[in-house]
Amino acid sequence: MGGQQRIYKQRIASTTTLAKVFRAMEMIAASRIGAARRAATEAGPYEKALTQAVAAVAVHTDLDHPLTEEREDTKRVAVLVVASDRGMAGAYSATILRESEKLISDLKAEGREPVLYTFGRRAAAYFRFRGVVIEREWEGESDSPSPDTSRDISRVLLERFLDTDPSTGVGELHLVYTRFKTVMSQVPEVRQMLPLTVVDTPESDEERTVERGYADDPASALPEYEFIPSPEAVLDTLLPLYVEARIHNVLLQSAASELASRQRAMHTATDNAQELITKYTRLANSARQAEITQEITEIVGGADALGAS
Fold this sequence. Notes:
By secondary structure, the chain is an alpha/beta fold. 58% of the residues lie in helices and 13% in strands. It has five helices and five strands; from the N terminus they run αβαβαβαββα. It has helices spanning 2-60, 92-109, 121-129, 147-162, 231-308, and strands spanning 76-82, 113-119, 134-138, 172-182, 185-194. It has a five-stranded mixed β-sheet, with helices on both faces. Helix 4 (147-162) packs across helix 5. The longest helix is centred in the C-terminal third of the chain and has 78 residues, at 231-308. The chain is elongated. Residues 200-216 have low confidence and may be disordered.
């Protein structure tokens, strides 16, 4: 019985340590969610201003731009998978990886050739373990992406889309990420980023694209503009910025989603650890009571034997 008590006490001690770690991770994630949400929200006005600027150029000109044109010369399709660097975030990464596998399978069924790009160690490790070639990977900033990283990602993907060589360029760009709605709700998203479809949707809609033409409401029609030095030069400058802003927003949305998922997962893990501690404490007390009962029985039996002799 004494051996069982030692086992239960060791389990209680180890589970208590884990509970403290889970609680600390929960508090860290909770403290960072606010900053992540603010970053995603504050990026909204800049993205909306770029959307309106691109819409203004598209509406008032008949220009065609390489970023808005369908490519028929290649079957290669870029897929950017945004996951986490670390685990302990529940099903956050697993959900994204499952959606990525489905997208890649669908693209192959259509005769396309997926070219994989990953953001986050979990995505890179997952596909590398399965022997999937990763064209480029970014790591270390899944819960706090920097503008420099977003700029580098957009530069690499734009270069691949604008590459005229069919053997190295890509005809489309798809993003697989998690959109943050609330602390309790995050939704996996699969979006086609390139070629751009330019549609100026209402401000409340999170997915803004740009389309030639006016809205049904005359009050929302764009005013006349004069473009200096030329509409072509303005569009050449705006569209890469627009792509960069969209990618940065995707990374910020994913960062907030990762932190929210980690907070929920660590809260659940802490509760489960407390339940285990309660269970082991009860078992340890039962083992101790059984040991005391056995000792009393042995003492009484010995006394009876001495009395009989």
